[in-house]
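B., you asked whether I could sanity-check this one before it goes into the benchmark set. Here's the sequence:
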Amino acid sequence: MDQKTFLKTLRSWQNGSISRREFLGRTGLGLAAAVVATNMPGLLTSTAEAAEQAKLGDRLSLATWPNYHSQENLDNFAKTTGARVSMSVFGSNEEMLAKLQAGGSGWDVLVPTNYTISTYVGLGLIEPLDLSRIPNFDASDFQQKFIAQGTVDGKVYAVPKNWGTTGMCYDTEKLKNGPTSWKQFWDMAQGPASGRTMVHDYQLTAIGNALKSFGYSFNSLDPKELADAEKLLIQVKPHLFAINSDIQPSMRSGDAWLAMSWTGDASQLHRDLPQMHFELGKEGGELWSDFFAIPKSSEHKDAAYAFINYLLDPQHNKLEVLSHGYPSGDKRVDALLPVAMLDDPIMYPAAEALSPLEFGAAATLTSPARAELMARFKSA
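And here's what the prediction gave me:
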């Protein structure tokens, strides 16, 4: 093995993409390892593990979303690398951005949504990724629309985690004829689902889906259109059970019957409670993709790269999808999934249902008008 190949193989082991055994076998060090192991049991293992753990550290801090990761993967990553994952969970990109801007977050990896990445780059909060340290990422395995916004000015700042939609989930045992449009959603919130409806604590979707009920763009910044959306939100506010992006506990307990829902929340609820039904609004709504990024302020960058690469391994990513119910967008992972999951209309809606959906626009993230509208809605 030449020096270049050896160093590449060494980096793969350090990143966690191959095991110690694979590293020893590929480099020809396995025989030496066997000799050492025979005469000095445990020396090579303890030395290798100590070296790897010293490089990665004993912790990794992750900023992410509710109900979004396989615990099995998190536990196995910790066992493999010695780096224990601690999570900070957020219900909106605005909240995540504000925390990172304030400094001192301590995050090593964050999971931003497509429309926010250019803002993070513009503010100097995330750094370009060294893709040689993420060998499990292959752009050719993804649809371009789900990875494009991870690249800014020709540099890759984020790699895809998964994609999904924002629709409405309802309990068919409580609501026999649930909504199929955002207009019906808001009407039912004031009618048969009064006191039992949840709206995201997230201005992009709360305001966006109010806008859609009037036939406006999900991303509108037009003052008149925002005024119409605000009037509706203020009108509905007394009828809501909660403004909270983590809908699952209340939907499972029966306290809520109707909620704005992301793909995975509906998938998980329907898996455990078959009476839970998911619809995309006929008027349109949101199509989105989430990414992995590394903050410039990360204190454990080696662990961050190892973590991202670990989760993008198709076998590990399969466990993610089976756990959270969001499509990965990686065709290698799709090939490993059960047919029933690939045929699930919650995860993989028909083309005609997806066609009216919009990706979030960067301008909405930092719009003072939308931020102030959301604040008035929550305080009303």
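One thing to flag: Residues 30-38, 40-51 have pLDDT under 50 and may be disordered. Otherwise nothing jumped out at me.
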